[in-house]
Specification:
about 130 residues; Rossmann fold; 5 helices
């Protein structure tokens, strides 16, 4: 018996170990996960697969997460996804700035395994509640 995934998550991080760890963790937690090493690769991997959540690292060598966020918010396959700034460089006073750029949520790295699953479930539950209220 197969079960329906809890949601679709796109993990974008240029660090292979980080990307792989979160991909395995979230897959094990019941999510349909795709991973990419850059925002460009992430866009290419999406196609018709619409992610519910995009975990986007901010500091990457080819294109920053900030620039990637602008593109994800414009593309039909990704514009409705919960866009999460995912970085070790986040301070409390930057959260407002990230939201202005287009991020819906902010997660500082490293994120404990239990916490990231709980936060993603919380993001998705809030999104569902908001849509039901419309």
């Amino acid at each position: 018996m197969t079960t329906e995934p809890k949601g679709r998550i796109l993990v974008i991080d240029d660090d292979d170990a980080v990307r792989s760890a979160y991909e395995r963790l979230l897959s094990h937690a019941g999510y349909d996960v795709r991973a990419a090493s850059s925002p460009y690769e992430g866009l290419e991997s999406v196609g018709d697969w619409k992610p519910d959540v995009i975990l986007l690292d901010l500091a990457m060598p080819t294109i920053s997460g900030f620039e990637g966020a602008k593109v994800f918010k414009k593309k039909p396959a990704t514009r409705d996804a919960i866009l999460v700034a995912f970085s070790g460089m986040i301070s409390d006073d930057e959260v407002t700035r990230f939201r202005r750029i287009g991020f819906d949520e902010v997660l500082p790295k490293p994120v404990a395994a239990v916490m990231i699953v709980e936060r993603i479930e919380s993001f998705l539950a809030r999104r569902a509640a908001t849509r039901e209220g419309l």
